[in-house]
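RECORD TYPE: inverse folding
INPUT: structure tokens
STRUCTURE:
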């Protein structure tokens, strides 16, 4: 009986947005994330008559199949193991949430691969493997807050837990503004972003921004954490706009939502936003303000879907 592995998605408060090495997925910057309780992927790997990838009960072909099996081939080569594999994944990341699922998907897949072959790895070793599938997956090995230190080579580039069970009152409201699939993948977007004249200056700020974020977390300072996360997200989207040629993931609704967050803050309802490679906005807030923020967004965006998430756990085996 093969075991199912569960990994949760994470949202970066200090973003990974650039690679130093494409094939090894070595990042140009260190990043820091919050693992989310509401969104996760369950994956089982077993021996099969041929390689197969089933996602939410549907057999996959094309790009998603290719990405999964080129990753598994790398892992098989690394550990000197063989055999056709059947991968069965269920994504509990509603497309409505506008969240990327590659972080939970590749963390769960790396874990399920190891379970299938009886390979015992430390969390750090598993984080390195997950990184080969998708950079952000390196952080989904851990619960709470995780840091992916960029490192200089395969060995030194992995994530570790900063605090797996934070006591902080931190809520993340995922606002579904747009359900359409993104036009430019993160892999492509972060490549293009490097042509911005502001990319290098942003990179130079990475260590300082990370240190400030860690200090805010340690001091349990929500205001500092929120404003740093918002600044970092704006920097990422500024380098996109100023790339050559420039591009943006923003839609008109994204701008409206950004202004609404500023408006709420002026009214004394403290909240901040972060945005990834898509038009949807995620709002950082505290429990006491969730109701008011939700009410305001629902009225401005006509019954928009909002999911309230908080800290999720690290990777685990289900059975
Ligand atoms: C904006 O991890 O999806 O969410 O390594 O190419 O698979 P690949 O990229 P991916 O990029 C995530 C980008 C981001 C920021 C972040 O999660 O740090």
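DESIGNED SEQUENCE:
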């Amino acid at each position: 009986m093969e075991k199912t592995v569960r990994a949760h998605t994470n949202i970066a408060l200090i973003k990974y947005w650039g690679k130093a090495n494409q094939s090894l997925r070595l990042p140009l910057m260190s990043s820091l994330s919050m693992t989310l309780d509401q969104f996760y992927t369950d994956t089982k790997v077993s021996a099969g008559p041929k390689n197969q990838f089933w996602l939410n009960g549907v057999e996959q072909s094309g790009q998603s199949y290719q990405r999964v099996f080129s990753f598994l081939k790398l892992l098989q080569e690394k550990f000197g193991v063989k055999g056709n594999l059947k991968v069965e994944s269920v994504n509990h990341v509603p497309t409505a949430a506008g969240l990327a699922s590659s972080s939970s998907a590749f963390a769960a897949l790396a874990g399920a691969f190891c379970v299938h072959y009886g390979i015992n790895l430390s969390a750090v070793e598993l984080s390195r493997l997950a990184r080969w599938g998708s950079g952000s997956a390196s952080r989904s090995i851990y619960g709470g807050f995780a840091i992916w230190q960029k490192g200089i080579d395969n060995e030194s580039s992995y994530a570790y837990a900063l605090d797996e069970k934070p006591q902080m009152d931190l809520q993340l409201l995922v606002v579904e503004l747009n359900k359409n699939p993104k036009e430019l993948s993160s892999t492509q977007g972060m490549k293009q972003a490097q042509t911005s004249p502001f990319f290098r200056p942003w990179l130079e700020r990475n260590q300082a921004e990370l240190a400030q974020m860690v200090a805010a977390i340690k001091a349990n300072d929500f205001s500092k954490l929120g404003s740093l996360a918002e600044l970092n997200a704006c920097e990422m989207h500024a380098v996109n706009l100023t790339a050559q040629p420039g591009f943006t993931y923003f839609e008109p609704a994204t701008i409206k939502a950004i202004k609404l967050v500023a408006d709420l803050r002026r009214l004394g309802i403290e909240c901040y936003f972060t945005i990834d490679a898509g038009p949807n906005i995620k709002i950082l807030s505290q429990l006491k303000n969730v109701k008011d923020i939700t009410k305001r967004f629902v009225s401005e965006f006509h019954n928009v879907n909002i999911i309230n998430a908080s800290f999720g756990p690290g990777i685990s085996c289900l059975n």
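NOTES: The chain has two domains: 5-166, 171-309.
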